[in-house]
Amino acid sequence: MPNKIKKIGVLTSGGDSPGMNAAIRSVVRTCAYHNIECVGIYRGYEGLIEGDFKSMDARSVKGIINKGGTILKSARSKEFRTKEGRQKAFNKLVEAEIDGLVIVGGDGSFTGAMILNKEFDFPVMGIPGTIDNDIVGTTHTLGFDTALNTVVDAIDKIRDTASSHNRLFFIEVMGRDVGHIALNTGIAGGAEEILIPEEDLGLDRLVESLKRSRKSGKTSSIVIVAEGDKIGKNIFELKDFVDENMEGYDVRVSVLGHMQRGGSPSCFDRVLASRMGVKAVESLLEGKSNYMVGLQNSKMELTPLDNAIKGKTKINLELLRVSDIMST
């Protein structure tokens, strides 16, 4: 394996997701395996500009594979968006004799990495860490599977109350501008309707669907709403509309919020993070740069960062059909 790189830096950037710590652990231990130094960069690109670095070895990442969040912390950096800020960051990398960088984050983090590579020809490799699963080039981003399990657990608990009081619950889940979390958890949680940005159900159709559910004998209902859905300005407007247009429903709203981003990562996310970390480090050692590591057809593959950033993920049409059948 070609080896011009002697020291690799790793940072986490953007929103946290379960599995980031497992990815950090994998990067550090893969470096140790190949006798490469590893440096943890705290607070993302902000810490990179300030030189907030710490040497890491295999023992420094013990006991973190099961922890949510990120031990390296994360922060937004306005300064890194400027050429002057990126120059400072590059200077810090040179001073620390860091030869390559692994970035765990989403599209914004990858954009920063791609620009750094373009301006300074600095080797970078991305690991997709976001619960939204909205990055092209991987079937699963780090944290997506854990978030699904967290949401389904919440839906199961809310359904107990819905059934006990004959209530209709609107449950809002995260996902930014895509409906992957909503669609998967809606099916797994037995939702009567699933509202996602990719499919405009319409308010009238929603009401008609709820009326059919009522006539079929359902005394309580769960509707999963992706935060990016455009059927109403917000989930509370949906509640008001149903209140005004349907009698006999006691309507409640539950916004799950940031609880979806926390918690111990699932087995799937721990294994995925471990595989991605190994692939990211070894790809840098092979001389590759400006790629994202992703899961495709059960294998670790590389996707150019530009494609990962500019591409748009597609909703699974089979799951849409399954959802329609299951809500009968």
Account of the 3D structure:
There is one protein chain. The model has no long low-confidence stretch (mean pLDDT 94). The chain starts with 6 loop residues before the first strand and ends with a helix. Strands 3-2-1-4-5-10-11 form a seven-stranded mixed beta sheet, with helices on both faces. Strands 7-8-6-9 form a four-stranded parallel beta sheet, sandwiched between helices. It is an alpha/beta fold and 328 residues long. Helix 1 (20-33) crosses helix 9 (267-285). The protein has helices spanning 20-33, 44-50, 83-95, 107-120, 144-165, 180-188, 203-215, 235-245, 267-285, 305-310, 317-326; strands spanning 7-12, 37-41, 53-56, 100-105, 124-128, 167-173, 193-195, 221-226, 250-255, 291-296, 299-304.
Indicate the overall shape. elongated
Q: Can you give the helix content as a percent range? A: 40-55%
Give a quick account of the main beta sheet: strands, pairing sense, barrel closure. Answer: 7 strands, mixed
Uncertain stretches of 5 or more adjacent residues: none
What is the first-to-last residue Cα distance? Answer: 56 Å
Structural class: alpha/beta
Give the count of helical stretches.
11
